[in-house]
Amino acid sequence: MDQVSLVIMLFAALLIPLVMAKFKINSLPTAVMEIIVGIILGPSVFNIVSMNSSISQLSTIGVIVLLFLSGLEIDFSLFKKRRAALTPLEKKNAVNIPKYSPVRLSVYAYTTIIILSLLLAAAFKVSGLFSDFWLATILFGTISLGIVIAALKEKELLSKAFGQTVLLISVFGELIPMMGLTLYASVYGSDSQSLWLLLLILAVAALLLLRFKPFFRFYQNINKSTTQLDIRLAFFLIVTMVTVAESVGAENILGAFVAGIVLKLLQPSDSTRERLDSIGYGFFIPIFFISTGVDLNLRTLLTSGKTLLLIPLFFLAYMVAKLGGYWVLKLRFKQANALAGTALTATTMTMVLAVLRVAKSMKTITADQSGAFLLAALLTCIVSPLIFNKFYSAEKEDLVKTAVHFIGANLSTVPVAQQLRKGWYDVKMYTNHPENYQTYHAQAPVELLENFTPIDLEDHDVFDTDILVLGHIDAERNYQLAKAAKDYGVKRIIVRFEDRNVLNEHEDELRDLGIEVYNTPEANITLLRSLIESPSTLLMLQDTENSIYEVKVLNHLYTNVQIKNLQFAQDITISQVIRNRKIIVPNGSTTIQYGDRLIFTGSKQDAPRIRQALATAN
């Protein structure tokens, strides 16, 4: 029977996304549907699946992997202090953004959640409905990070400011109650370890980070398909941190979350994260969510009058505790999205399960109260995503063009800038030569600067851009500015080197930093060879209707899909796939992988839409 239950759960995990796609059920995240299906399969309805030791162990691994992947999702670049947080285009188009970064908003929002949770816990204590003040505070302040991530992923929002803000609020909503639970168990429990031992978790995390810091620099050279060293490292980190956390009396999910942060700081490749997502969301995490539903016996819980009274009260408390976030999110995002984000942060399940498990072992909560907290948490997981999907729409800042800044206005850069302005790019050029300014400012958006020092460029917001092209004739100056731009945090930097000697001296250093370099004579040679070997190259270059494009595939909807099965396969021609710095000549059966760079041709009307679809991180 044990194996049959597991088979049914795995079949349900396979069937749920297929049914949701078939009937276009987009209002609820897959994780919530998995919990609902678990309730239907369990003793609440059909009773064809029962919990056993094997499923419980897999479920525990599932929540550990879920929290590990949650730590891996945090964008730590948001915490990096920069002189200016925005591109000029964002400053021009967005409202109130300069003051409020995702980090600041998330801190403000979760502060309101703590305050409201304390007030609600006090109200329950005074009314006599629930007397454990600190336990109620922890429960009301929890947010289900796994469900929030699932909802943001399905909306492709994790790479956007709104998604990162909601994610960080949810991180606080999982991490702070987790720490609060550890302190609660240490103070009121009988067999907990000393509080100072909790510092060992951070000490071990720091030690692992320092020990494996150079790992991803060299593992590609020795990695083989039969070794998968990066995945082995990930599970080593998980098991180590979970073991340390449990040894000092903390929850295993705290160790898993810290392990995810450690791996994130080690800067794994996109393919590593893709495979970890596949392992987690493909097997362990669905078992956790389905088993959560199976574990809820509604027949028993709903027979108690006190439980029926407490369910709506606890549900309202979960929701009201998050209301302060609405006014915080309104500081940057439009009103409907502030409501959507507030609703999504009201989802709570994962930490509620952990808190109630500890509380029951400490005998500080009754079965009726525990059941009411669980069912109320389940209601938030159904209602909140529905509100989120109903009200969310794209922010203005997510619809702006890609900002490209050119340093150097000359015959090599001006024609390129003119062509880019016709597409989905916002272009600005900078020169320190008055003669060049007089020559080109009527043809392109050129600004005249006295100096090209890093401080001057920062003061004029030149480094506030998505793409920086250093097209100045002075190769040594380009090298210095490229490093300054990288330190500042420019996402993509392209550098021109006319002096091959300077390029030879710095090429390896720049490539290690992720900076792209080019040399005009070599580019001309490559073009001429392409014309000789492929005469159609000239037709593509001269074609006024079609053009050549490059895009990095970050959208999971288009990964592990053969080129011939892409929904826009008839609209573009993919000529090259660049994977791990190797060029692949594709055919219809070539499978697109996460992180691939595609070189393709397409019409100037369709290509921007297709590029945006492929490059949208979800």
From TrEMBL:
<feature type="transmembrane region" description="Helical">
    <location>
        <begin position="371"/>
        <end position="388"/>
    </location>
</feature>
<dbReference type="InterPro" id="IPR006153">
    <property type="entry name" value="Cation/H_exchanger_TM"/>
</dbReference>
<feature type="transmembrane region" description="Helical">
    <location>
        <begin position="335"/>
        <end position="359"/>
    </location>
</feature>
<dbReference type="InterPro" id="IPR038770">
    <property type="entry name" value="Na+/solute_symporter_sf"/>
</dbReference>
<keyword id="KW-0472">Membrane</keyword>
<comment type="similarity">
    <text>Belongs to the monovalent cation:proton antiporter 2 (CPA2) transporter (TC 2.A.37) family.</text>
</comment>
<feature type="transmembrane region" description="Helical">
    <location>
        <begin position="165"/>
        <end position="187"/>
    </location>
</feature>
<keyword id="KW-0813">Transport</keyword>
<keyword id="KW-0812">Transmembrane</keyword>
<feature type="transmembrane region" description="Helical">
    <location>
        <begin position="133"/>
        <end position="153"/>
    </location>
</feature>
<protein>
    <submittedName>
        <fullName>Cation:proton antiporter</fullName>
    </submittedName>
</protein>
<keyword id="KW-0406">Ion transport</keyword>
<feature type="transmembrane region" description="Helical">
    <location>
        <begin position="107"/>
        <end position="127"/>
    </location>
</feature>
<dbReference type="InterPro" id="IPR036721">
    <property type="entry name" value="RCK_C_sf"/>
</dbReference>
<feature type="transmembrane region" description="Helical">
    <location>
        <begin position="278"/>
        <end position="296"/>
    </location>
</feature>
<feature type="transmembrane region" description="Helical">
    <location>
        <begin position="233"/>
        <end position="266"/>
    </location>
</feature>
<feature type="transmembrane region" description="Helical">
    <location>
        <begin position="308"/>
        <end position="329"/>
    </location>
</feature>
<dbReference type="Pfam" id="PF02080">
    <property type="entry name" value="TrkA_C"/>
</dbReference>
<feature type="transmembrane region" description="Helical">
    <location>
        <begin position="193"/>
        <end position="212"/>
    </location>
</feature>
<dbReference type="InterPro" id="IPR006037">
    <property type="entry name" value="RCK_C"/>
</dbReference>
<feature type="transmembrane region" description="Helical">
    <location>
        <begin position="6"/>
        <end position="23"/>
    </location>
</feature>
<dbReference type="InterPro" id="IPR036291">
    <property type="entry name" value="NAD(P)-bd_dom_sf"/>
</dbReference>
<feature type="transmembrane region" description="Helical">
    <location>
        <begin position="55"/>
        <end position="74"/>
    </location>
</feature>
<feature type="domain" description="RCK C-terminal">
    <location>
        <begin position="536"/>
        <end position="616"/>
    </location>
</feature>
<keyword id="KW-0050">Antiport</keyword>
<keyword id="KW-1133">Transmembrane helix</keyword>
<feature type="transmembrane region" description="Helical">
    <location>
        <begin position="30"/>
        <end position="49"/>
    </location>
</feature>
<dbReference type="Pfam" id="PF00999">
    <property type="entry name" value="Na_H_Exchanger"/>
</dbReference>
